Amino acid sequence: MRELTYIARRTVEWREAPDPRLQSDGQAIVAPVAATSCDVDSSILAGHGFIDPPFALGHECVARVVETGDAVTTVAAGDLVVVPWSINCGTCERCRAGLTAHCTAVPYMAMYGAPIGGTWGGLFSDLVRVPYADAMLVPLPAGLDPVAMASASDNWSLAWRLVAPHLKARPGARVLVVARGSIGLYVCDIARALGASDVLYVDPDPEHRALARAFGAATAETLDPISQGYDIAVEATGRVDQLALAVKSLAPEGICESAGNHFLPGELPLLDMYLTGVTLRIARDNVRAHIPDALELAASGKVAPEKVVSHVIDWEDLPTALPEKHLKPVFVRTDD
């Protein structure tokens, strides 16, 4: 089989690898049918990653099950499934608590798409081994388009977690989104669908702002701190200066969720945060716990994740198209 391999800044290529094989009766082999890049992939391709190439890329996809071990009960060959980005067993204490990104059955930070916590391959591959099929794979609900939901492995389900639980606890809350890509746009869609009274989306990209307006959000190119302006803030830029502006705009006891990958240090307005009583979470996402709820919302018809898909591109064009700058390209296979 082939796996798409990152070899240098803005350079990827197909490389041959052995076909994955079942190594236990609880495993599955899947074939991605709709895979997409996330903000981490974009950072890696731009040369901002912290791991030296070469390594297999990709950690967001909907796949078709090709083969299962005899002990697998939740999926069968032919099923369409969401493949979460992190490797998790589903039975250790942390997994049972929903902390699937911190599973103790595998090396810390085990994931697809980067050789962290072992080498698990990437989801831009012709075939992928899933080591804990019952725990990891989530059947795609009937009627949902794999292209629209290619990001359910990470960004779509992460966006649900960033805002949905907070809006349930604070109905009608005001939401600020400071972003640079798909996560923030998904948040806008979800926040409006779940009853946010006001959504402001901040992004220098005019096309992104236009899409946010289509989701019912007000938009701005830049942000001046709005004193006590918002109950919930979501930062997805990876820039500490933008995170600082977001927390400065929170109302008393406001909540800030940071989904940015902060590779560079910076300063936060800690005194302002202390006086306001800010709750700040910066965390890698335990996405497997949220995928079912995020898919349920997608299936409700109240949201339109397909609008964030910027390009639909043939699987064979991955080496040339992935390094290009697209908001949310989805690469599809039609050979199955």
From TrEMBL:
Ranges for domain Alcohol dehydrogenase-like C-terminal: 183-297
Keyword Zinc in annotation: yes
GO molecular function, one term: alcohol dehydrogenase (NAD+) activity
Listed InterPro entries: ADH-like_C (IPR013149), ADH-like_N (IPR013154), GroES-like_sf (IPR011032), NAD(P)-bd_dom_sf (IPR036291)
Top EC category: oxidoreductase
Named cofactor requirement(s): Zn(2+)
Name used for this protein in its record: Alcohol dehydrogenase
UniProt entry keywords in alphabetical sequence: Metal-binding, Oxidoreductase, Zinc
Keyword Metal-binding on entry: yes
Source organism: Streptomyces luteogriseus
Known EC number: 1.1.1.1
Annotated Pfam families: ADH_N, ADH_zinc_N
Domain (Alcohol dehydrogenase-like N-terminal): residue spans on this chain: 25-140
